[in-house]
Amino acid sequence: MSTEQNKFELILINIAGEDRPGLTSALTEILGTHDASILDIGQADIHHTLSLGILFKTTSEKSGTIMKELLFKASEMNVTIRFSPITFEAYNNWVSRQGKHRWIITILGRRITAKQIAAVSKVVAQQNLNIDAIQRLTGRMPLHEGEEAMNKSCIEFSVRGTPTDKATMQKELMELASTLDFDVSMQEDTIYRRSRRLICFDMDSTLIETEVIDELAIKAGVGDQVKAITEAAMRGEIDFKESFTQRVALLKGLDASVMQDIAENLPMSEGIERLMSVLKRTGYKIAILSGGFTYFGNYLKQKFGIDYVYANELEIEDGKLTGRYVGEIVDGKRKAELLRLLAQVENVNIAQTIAVGDGANDLPMLLTAGLGIAYHAKPKVKAGAKQSISTIGIDGVLYFMGFKDSFITDNNTYQ
Questions:
Q1: Which of 114, 225, 237, 376 has the fewest CB atoms in 10 Å of its CB?
Q2: Dihedrals φ, ψ of 256, to 5°?
């Protein structure tokens, strides 16, 4: 043992009990009085019950006095305290682990159960990863049946280490989410995750709960024909450009004035107002990259203050649709290109971007973005995406971004 190790001691204290103002101050004041060095500190508060850990370094001569004073103070404040000596070897081993990769695993649903948490924790353990912290991002859990209909529940795990097989881990988490009815996201915890700046959305069946081309087709009397082509395209069974051309051709002769009525009655996705309010107030640039139509994208742009709209332009002559489109089709490849272009325009790293969509033509941008989220997506899209939301509304995106309900006030503003 070195001379320094003989002279100094490392002591871990664990304090538990009812939380109260001034507790941390009183305990650290004792350490400060005796010139102890705090090497690590962590605190959690669960339902007003405190769990506080402090690792400190002090001289062998002072350690007994410090522990005695801490014990008396803990008794005075009606909390329990436990002392554990830490060897220099154990401390150095702990320090060596700090450089390992960190991950954020988020689980989300109408309700989170012990079974879901146990299943996710098991996958983490099988990959030889350590859970450093767990926090709840959502507000109170419902106590009575019937309260869950529009409830949201989210738990975030902070995990450290290098997965034995990251691809397998990702796949297992997605399979668990499907089996146990929750949503999941696994992200590397980097500086880019904490500073995302650009978010791009598909429009139809993502920001709105319909496919606008189907609404137009109903007005034109060709609803069943167009819907069948739309569904096949979203499943990836038909090339998007080909399906798009076929569907637009069926709209020939439709009066263009019907678009205003459709726009004013679009069914918005659950949570869209809350999502857009928070994104705007926190400085995000927002884009719609859609295989739908610019008329409806611009309507949403005006409604929510969206920054960019890239979609398809319907050709109109004498107030009627011609059955043709103008310019280049915004398909899957084009969406990914536009995402990269907007990242350059906004001067952000591609890792600082987010993409959200539901169809096969959204996969390229979902896989290009720093965070790609399949939203109420078709099976093929969920299978190809790394994150998905299927159990709650589109404001669930906020939890994958790390937002907490406690930061969002009742009037949907971010504090």
A1: 114
A2: -65, -20
DSSP lists the bridge partners of residue 293 as 312
102-109 and 320-326 strand pairing: unpaired
Which residue from 395, 330, 392, 328 is spatially nearest to 365, judged by alpha carbons?
Answer: 330
Other beta carbons less than 10 A from residue 46's beta carbon? 11
* pLDDT mean across residues, the chain: 91
CB 382 within 8 A of CB 234: no
Q: What is the mean pLDDT of residues 388-412?
A: 86
Question: Does 145 score more than 70 pLDDT?
Answer: no
Q: Residue 11 in contact with residue 86, Cβ under 8 Å?
A: yes
Residue 148's pLDDT band (cuts 50, 70, 90): low
Tell me which residue has tokens 């522990």.
67
Is 185:105 a contact under the CB 8 Å cutoff?
yes
DSSP reduced 3-state for 94: helix
Given this model, what pLDDT does residue 256 score?
A: 95
Give yes or no for residue 274 having a pLDDT over 70.
yes
Active-site annotation holds for 214 = no
- Provide the strand spans (E) within 69-129: 80-86, 102-109
Give the sign of the dihedral formed by CA 232, CA 235, CA 237, CA 241.
Answer: positive
Short-list 280, 298, 279, 282, CA closest to 290: 298
Residue with tokens 């429009």: 203
In the prediction, which pLDDT does 408 show?
A: 73
DSSP state of 193: G
Helix (H, G, I), strand (E, B) or coil at 369: coil
Is 358 annotated in the active site? no
* pTM, two decimal places: 0.84
Helices of type H across 327-370:
332-345, 363-368
Tokens of 183: 């949503």
Strand ranges for 137-253 from DSSP E:
153-160, 183-188, 198-201
For 67-115, the pLDDT digits (tens) are: 999 999 999 999 999 999 999 988 887 777 666 789 999 999 998 999 9
Q: Which of 19, 183, 204, 214 is catalytic?
A: 204
Instruction: Report which of 197, 169, 16 is spatially closest to residue 103, judged by C-alpha positions.
Output: 169
Question: Which residue in the list 19, 202, 214, 395 is annotated as catalytic?
Answer: 202
* Sheet-wide strand order for 285-293: 130-136, 153-160, 102-109, 183-188, 387-389, 371-375, 353-357, 198-201, 285-293, 308-317, 320-326
Residue with token string 């103070």 = 73
Our measurement of the distance from residue 188's CA atom to the centroid of its chain's CA atoms, rounded to an integer in Å, reads 12
- Nearest C-alpha neighbor of 342 from the set 289, 278, 276, 394: 289
User: In this structure, which amino acid lies at residue 253?
Assistant: G
Cβ atoms of residues 237 and 228 within 8 Å = no
